[in-house]
């Protein structure tokens, strides 16, 4: 886990908000439940709608979170779904408790 990349990814209010939404996707993205479940995560389009940002900005934010290891992506056809990498959050917690 690259500490610098990790903390850079967490240094943006919107990226933190996206991570919070992905923590409880059923509550944060009820519109997706009609079309697909949450097994693979949340569709980029749903995140874009909720955030009010452009698709390119949302994609860039998700790429930063993915490089830091905080989210995982799954591609299904033309759609990409993202979910939190809970193992990374466990490592982050240990990192903060032991090193920071």
- Tell me how many strands there are: 3
Top-tier CATH class: Mainly Alpha
Number of domains: 1
Regions with little confidence, pLDDT below 50 for 5+ residues? none
Describe it for me?
The protein is globular. The protein contains 6 helices and 3 strands, in the order H-H-H-E-H-H-E-E-H. The model has no long low-confidence stretch (mean pLDDT 92). The chain has a single domain, classed as Arc Repressor Mutant, subunit A (Orthogonal Bundle), CATH 1.10.10. With 100 residues, the protein is an alpha+beta fold. A 3-stranded antiparallel β-sheet has the order 1-3-2.
Give short descriptive properties of this protein:
100 residues; 14% strand; alpha+beta; 56% helix
Q: What is the secondary structure topology, with strand pairs?
A:
Blueprint: H1 3-9, H2 13-23, H3 25-28, E1 42-43, H4 44-51, H5 55-67, E2 71-76, E3 79-84, H6 86-98
Antiparallel strand pairs: 1-3, 2-3
Give the gist of this structure.
With 100 residues, the protein is of the alpha+beta class. It has a single domain, classed as Arc Repressor Mutant, subunit A (Orthogonal Bundle), CATH 1.10.10.10. It has 6 helices and 3 strands, in the order αααβααββα.
């Amino acid at each position: 886990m690259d500490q610098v990349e990790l903390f850079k990814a967490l240094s943006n209010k919107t990226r933190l908000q996206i991570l919070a939404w992905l923590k409880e996707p059923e509550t944060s993205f009820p519109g997706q439940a009609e079309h697909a479940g949450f097994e693979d995560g949340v569709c980029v389009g749903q995140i874009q709608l909720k955030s009010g940002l452009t698709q390119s900005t949302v994609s860039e934010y998700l790429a930063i979170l993915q490089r830091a290891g905080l989210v995982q992506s799954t591609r299904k056809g033309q759609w990409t779904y993202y979910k939190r990498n809970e193992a990374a959050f466990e490592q982050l917690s240990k990192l903060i408790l032991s090193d920071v």
